[in-house]
Write a structure and sequence with these properties.
Elements: E1 2-6, E2 16-20, E3 30-40, H1 42-47, E4 65-73, E5 85-89, E6 98-102, E7 106-108, H2 115-135, E8 143-146, H3 152-163, E9 167-172, H4 175-185, E10 189-192, H5 197-204, E11 210-215, H6 219-225, E12 229-237, H7 251-256, E13 259-262, H8 265-271, H9 273-289, E14 296-301, H10 305-313, E15 320-324
Helix pairs in contact: 2-3, 2-9, 8-9
Amino acid sequence: MRALQVRELAADHAGCGLVDLPRPEPGPGEVRVRVRAAAVNFPDLLMTRGGYQLKPELPFTPGLEFSGEVDALGTGVGDWAVGDAVLGGNRFGAMADYCIVPAAALRGKPERLGWEEAAAYGVAYLTAWVSLVRCGRVQAGEWVLVHGAAGGVGLATVDLAGALGARVIAAASSAVKREAIAQLYAPDAAIAAEPGFRETVKELTGGRGADVIFDPVGGDVFDESTRCIAFDGRLLVVGFASGRIPQISVNRPLIKGFAIVGVRAGEYGRRFPERGAENIAAIDALAAEGRIRPHVHAVLDLADWREGFAMLERREVVGKVVLRP
């Protein structure tokens, strides 16, 4: 089988390349999946140079999200049959013709979704759900400001917030991205992600400010977000794409009456397994009903993996890039 393999950790993915490997065999409790699509995520890129907290033993195949068909079953697997259409997440291994995953890591593919959309929505929409519903307690009619709105998780948050009945302000860095977001999901507003956005947010919300702010950027964006959040608002700390981890004097949330909430969707599910299962069931149900619509920016052959990685690094992607083995 073909697989993208990381042989050594190096900058510019210099230690990566396509190789031919024997088709793997599933062990007890495992399933072999014929991969039809594998999403590209920033953690995949970081792992190729050892920049992510998870550091698999070399050599390894990146790829944490995929969709495909059950191809072979290990002993003790009774929930799946050969030919079942599935999707799932694994810590790595999906950027190959076949991957081995625990049977429990698989879910049935919603019929409404093609292979590419099914591979691309799990991590992004799960993060969006935990952010908005579990941590943000968003209510219909509330204003939600989404920073990094063109990225995979940001775009999913725009989509989900609308599906939950919120009024959505999408902030993105370029006019091209803002136009794409408006065409895809018709938020109440798509605004420039540049200094001074707080005045725009205040004007759009009638002076109130945003009830929920989704912030995967940090740095100056976080600082300014504290100046356009509503009383009783929830400022969701999702990441620090800007590279600067901000600090705040706690008198500000005290005086303005807002909460700062950290979001770790995967850890949330590990700490609260029952709620984690409910979260996954919720986004799968929304996908099955057509209430959320994952967007794939580009579909590339596995052989073109380097271009897919570069598209993310150039920050030109609206949604997700998907590789087809």
